[in-house]
Design a protein that fits this description.
- The chain is of the alpha+beta class.
- The protein has one domain: Jelly Rolls, CATH 2.60.120.
- The chain contains eight helices and ten strands.
- It has a four-stranded antiparallel beta sheet.
- The radius of gyration is 21 Å and the shape is elongated.
- It comes from Salix suchowensis.
- Keywords: Ion channel, Ion transport, Ligand-gated ion channel, Transport.
Length: about 200
């Protein structure tokens, strides 16, 4: 509320100073200053206590959480565990989801696809007390609609997909499943060849 009475350029400079940690978050490292300013306008400070759940499997993903201090664990439906700490983000799948589920009409306006919501396939639990900043789904949707072209940049998409502990764990699991399936197929083909000879 104190910031609202100041000139807009001063507000922006103060927000940039207060939220300079956001540049440490891999998703925002490659993004334009305009996107960062829009995100910083919407961030809200959050504190989670040890043992609390930030997201839970089967629940709606309603926010992105940027971890400033503390340790968390991400537990997938398949039991895959990933450690999260300072500089990591949880709920980043929401950003990708908004980009994939936004449509644009012929006149250039965004069409909202109603009734669709993102369901979490993991539980994020605090291992220690956690200080974080949160960006609600509604605020994130507004930012993605304004800056969709910038967020679709292949470098930004790569940062979202390839540097996220969440997406890395999913990729590792899928690679392991594919490898086991291939080994099983090779073993089956060897045994069938030996039976025919």
């Amino acid at each position: 509320m104190l910031l609202e009475n100041l000139p807009e350029d001063l507000q922006r400079d103060i927000r940039r100073h207060l939220f300079k940690f956001i540049k440490k978050v891999w998703i925002f490292h490659l993004m334009d200053e305009h996107i960062l300013d829009a995100v910083c306008e919407k961030l809200k400070q959050k504190i989670y206590i040890k043992g609390s759940e930030v997201l839970y499997a089967g629940g709606l993903v309603e926010k992105m959480v940027f971890i400033v201090r503390g340790k968390l664990e991400s537990i997938g439906l398949d039991g895959t565990m990933v450690a999260l700490s300072e500089g990591n983000v949880c709920g980043e799948e929401l950003l990708t989801w908004f980009l994939e589920h936004s449509s644009v009409s012929k006149d250039g306006r965004k069409i909202k696809i109603s009734g669709q919501r993102l369901i979490s396939n993991r539980t994020i639990r605090c291992l220690t007390n956690v200080e974080a900043f949160s960006l609600s789904a509604a605020d994130l949707e507004q930012v993605t609609s304004l800056f969709a072209r910038n967020l679709r940049n292949p470098l930004v998409q790569g940062a979202i997909r390839y540097q996220s502990p969440y997406w890395r764990a999913i990729a590792a699991t899928r690679i392991q499943v594919a490898w086991r399936y291939r080994q099983k197929c090779l073993k089956h083909s060897k045994t069938s060849r030996s039976n025919h000879s």
